[in-house]
Amino acid sequence: MHRILYLAFIFTLSSAIFLSSCKKDPLLIDNHLDTTITGNEPPPFYGISELQIKLYINKLYVDLIGRQPTTVELDDNFTYLKSNSLSANSRGVIVDQSLSPLNTSVSIKENIPLVLNNTILQNNSSTSESAVFEIQIRDRANHYSNILTTPPITVLP
Questions:
Q1: Distance set, CA 33 to CA 27, 28, 36, 37, 108 (Å)
Q2: pTM: predicted TM-score of the whole model, two decimal places
Q3: Mean pLDDT, the chain cut into blocks of 10 residues (157 residues total)
Q4: Cα dist from 143 to 63, 95, 112, 136, 140, whole Å
């Protein structure tokens, strides 16, 4: 009888321990792969980032003169581009300055075909006249070249 009471006690005790033990929370998987949030739109940005501008300046220096810009050159050109709204004219000025830094000059030697339409003789009775032309080139940044004077050219009627 002691044995039956003992077994009943053990069974009751183990049942109480088993039933009152900690319960494990169910495993919840929160998967956001296909979740669409309505009304969630990125803020509008219609400009060019600071990084893109600095990369543009860096690429200009590397491509045109074969080196990276100094920190001062990068900052100065960045400020200049931003203050001129990244205009084509301001980009042209930076290209010109990169090719010809301050107090230096770049010599460009090229044959430029030039057609002078409607060149007339000043003296109607003459069969030919001599003319001299002065030519000057202006670039995008409104910088002027040296004045070239042609040798005398014979103008025929």
A1: 18, 15, 9, 11, 60
A2: 0.42
A3: 77 73 68 70 82 93 89 93 90 82 64 74 77 81 82 81
A4: 23, 13, 18, 10, 7
DSSP 22-78: PPPPPP-----TT---TT--PPP--S--HHHHHHHHHHHHHHHHSSPPPHHHHHHHH
Neighbours of 94 (CB within 10 A): 23
Which position has the token pair 């491509």?
63
Question: Which amino acid does the sequence have at 109?
Answer: K
Calculate Rg over the CA atoms of the chain: 42
First to last CA, the chain: 146
Contact 54, 106 (CB under 8 A): no
